[in-house]
Amino acid sequence: MIVLETERLLFRDHTLDDLEPFCAMEADPEVRRWVGGAPRTREAAERKFREVYLPPVRNRMGMWATILKEEERYIGYCGVYPNFGEAALGYHLARPYWRRGLATEAARAFVAFGFRQLGLSRIVSAVEVGNDASKRILEKLGFVWLRRERNATRAFDHFELGARASGPERRDKPARSRD
Predict the structure, then answer these.
(1) Which of 164, 157, 92 is nearest to 125 (CA)?
(2) Is 163 exposed, middle or buried (0-12, 13-18, 19+ CB in 10 A)?
(3) Pick from 144, 99, 106: which is nearest to 125 by CA?
(4) Where are the alpha helices (DSSP H) in the chain?
(5) Helix 102-112 vs helix 132-140: angle between axes, to the nearest 10 degrees?
(6) Are 104 and 78 in contact (CB under 8 A)?
(7) Contact assessment for residue 26 and residue 39, using Cβ atoms and an 8 Å cutoff
(8) pLDDT tens for each residue of the chain, 179 residues long
(9) What is the pTM assigned to this prediction?
(10) Which residue from 92, 80, 5, 9 is spatially nearest to 48, judged by alpha carbons?
(11) Where are the domains of the chain?
(12) For the chain, first and last CA: distance in Å?
């Protein structure tokens, strides 16, 4: 099922065809640096894929397979997902697709989807300190910094965006829901 589409991306349920590019992305130390710290082994990545990403998304809140339309290629996973009782925005792309504006396009689409289609009043996100690219994406979309959380090995900045603060979509063409 395709849930959402933008000018360059479409978002759908994961399929078994996504397993190989998913595992390759999860093994990349530069990708994992900001979303878990260490690369996943093939076994761990496959287990995560089958248990978390392969089951269909319920209630349209989840992390969707992200497909670059021009290449018809799986490039990551993005979405608004339930996290500790809140709606959280996440976007994870394979390294060859960084610095093309694709993460911003995906994040903008899911912010609009969350507020307009899901009726959310607030979306949160967390970015590991040092991940300036992700922080800039959130700032472009109007997210505001809430707090910094530190644990023994890592630190995260937490952000939020309220429906009133989100305003109209900027620059990118509006995303189209496929409901």
Answers:
(1) 157
(2) middle
(3) 144
(4) 19-27, 29-32, 42-48, 102-112, 132-140, 163-166
(5) 40
(6) no
(7) yes
(8) 778 999 999 999 999 999 999 999 999 999 998 887 789 999 999 999 999 999 988 888 999 999 999 999 999 999 999 988 889 999 999 999 999 999 999 999 999 999 999 999 999 999 999 999 999 999 999 999 999 999 888 899 999 999 765 544 433 344 555 54
(9) 0.86
(10) 92
(11) 2-177
(12) 9
Q: How far is residue 162's CA from residue 111's CA, in Å, rounded to a whole number?
A: 10
CATH for the 2-177 domain, from 3.40.630.30, 3.40.640.10, 3.30.110.10, 3.30.930.10: 3.40.630.30
125 backbone dihedrals φ, ψ, rounded to 5°: -155, 155
Q: Which two tokens stand for residue 136?
A: 């800039």
**Which residue's entry shows tokens 């995260």?**
156
